[in-house]
Amino acid sequence: MANTNITGILEKMTGKDKDYRYMATSDLLSELNKESFKADQDLESKLTNIVLQQLEDASGDVSGLAVKCLAPLVKKVNEERVVEMTDKLCDKLLNGKDQHRDTASIALKAVIVEVTTASLSEKILVSLAPQLINGVTNGKSAEIKCECLDILSDVLHRFGNVITKDHAYMLTALLTQLSSTQASVRKKSVSCIASLAPCLSDDLLAKATLEVIKLLKIKRAKSDITRTNIQMIGALSRSVGYRFGPHLAEAVPLLINYCTSASENDEELREYSLQALESFMLRCPRDISPYCEGILNLALEYVSYDPNFTDSMEEDTDDEVQDEEEDDESADEYTDDEDASWKVRRASAKCLSAIIASRPQMLSKMYQEACPKLVDRFREREENVKMDIFNTFIELLRQTGNVTKGQGDIDESSPRWLLKQEVPKVVKSINRQLREKSIKTKVGAFSVLKELVVVLPDCLADQFGSLVPGIEKALNDKSSTSNLKIEALAFTRIVMASHSPSVFHPYIQALSGPILSAIGDRYYKVTAEALRVCGELVRVLRPNFEERTIDFRPYIIPIYKAILARLANQDQDQEVKECAISCMSLVIATFGDGLQRELPSCLPILVDRMGNEITRLTAVKAFAVIANSPLRIDLSCVLDHVVSELTAFLRKANRALRQATLGTLNSLVVTYGSQIGSSSYETILAELSTLIMTAICIWPL
């Protein structure tokens, strides 16, 4: 579009009718987004002026569109014009009318995001930083200060390392705001200093840290100022990482002292102290070593900190079934909207998690001291805190798996051995959580159990029976969500895969119904997971073919019908299709001698799935499973068709398909060689010769 037409748009943007202004601004936005758009110096000036003017339009729709124009405009005008725009926007922010301040702030942030070159970022920082610092220090309102700090934080985060010569004066100005009377200003100042910190020299970083520590040593300081300074210490360590290490000697004892000596109602002070200590553990893993013991003891003390509530319930009772619902609700009887002690417990749990993640060498100690405490805290009354307790325990399990991979559990001081001793208590406590009404709690409980079985396979052999009611309820209860069903099914699958089949034989009747019902669930992820569990159930029912350890015959047809309903349905998710194919192949390979009547109608469906490109690979592997069955399944109704299809697949470009096809053909030839016709063998040999020649050409001898 010619510049004269752009001029026409600019004229309409200043009209009296807001609809015309809106349409004209929209047209301008379209033009600015075109790659071919270019503007001379005169047009650049007009464009920037009119867009900045539109930011103050009485119509919110027009001013909103004007903000959107800024991003492409920054890319179309020269750097001096962008600096001019930021200066004008900053002036609007600092000195403009109240009703236009928010728009100016949003616009300024929009411009900063689009700055990508080092030269422009330096020019903007040189121009903008002093103005923003001025807005923070020169007696402006709290709202203006917060906007300035917000924008300055963005600028420093993106371009903080551009002009190091100004770091000292910016740091000094920002540190003074930590003592502001307005909480919002203090909070924004913490974020702003944290954005500046990674760019600071070691000397300036030391100055900032020592200044904050000095303020923390003033015992008579106001508690809200103290809380801000503790937050600042934590933010600095998160921001600069290992560079904070030299200052831990002064910071750690201070924070531990504040945490233990805070007044009963000052929960936030304890929370912020624990959060800072958590940060030290994660960000300064080497330098924090001398203080780990003290931090661990502190976190263990406060993970159960609940001064306003005493839970007299004992977990050691053997009569867990009696009055279950009453027990479930008893922990929730106490409620107090003003009680903030849960923040302390949550911060303690996260601090423990940080210790576990960063100090694998302390795992044995964690099992001796932290594990019993965490298991006891599974009954935490605040659900969000309980989730953090679960996550901390899961972190302990994962670290145990990582550290002890490939090791035995003979050594009585090893983490695996110590964990094994805790399994009965863990299961007992988790069982209680599975009886809770909260879906979130039950999902978390199954997550703990899953991780436990991953780390210690076969650890639930003596405990599984007590978990069956919880699994049944999760799968059968009408209030259960899809997420809960998936977690319950995933746990069941993992535990079946890692334990002896005989462990589950007493509970097959109780579990098979809910599992088969889940196969018919409307949500595809539940169905897919249920089909995977069903595959494990099949293996459990008939673990070997020489002897019958359980009468599996009553379960064959129900399992077959449930899977067939999914296998025959083409209108469903790919994951379900693949799981149904794999599961049916297991059923046929395991129970084929009891499905002679059903096979002629089922096997052609599997052959049909080989013809579909999406399910082809899974179907090919399914026939390998069937062919390898000791039962020598009767494939006469489909054998020729299967061999023909497989032979054709050897010509496909898909390497994974060719490999699977070769494996399946090999199994078929070994098991059904005498039933395969000579013409089929000739075709197979021809295709194999081609494959071999191709391989020789690619990898010459």
Describe it.
This protein has 701 residues and is mainly α. Helices cover 70% and strands 0% of the residues. The protein contains 32 helices and no strands. It has helices at residues 3-12, 18-32, 41-54, 60-76, 79-95, 98-113, 118-137, 142-159, 167-176, 183-196, 202-216, 223-240, 248-261, 267-283, 292-302, 324-330, 341-358, 363-376, 383-403, 415-434, 439-455, 464-476, 482-498, 508-519, 524-541, 553-567, 574-591, 599-610, 616-627, 639-649, 655-672, 678-698. Mean pLDDT is 90; it is low at 312-333. Residues 312-339 have a biased composition (Acidic residues). This is Cullin-associated NEDD8-dissociated protein 1. InterPro entries: ARM-like, ARM-type_fold, CAND1/CAND2. Keywords: Repeat, Ubl conjugation pathway. One of its GO terms (biological process) is SCF complex assembly.
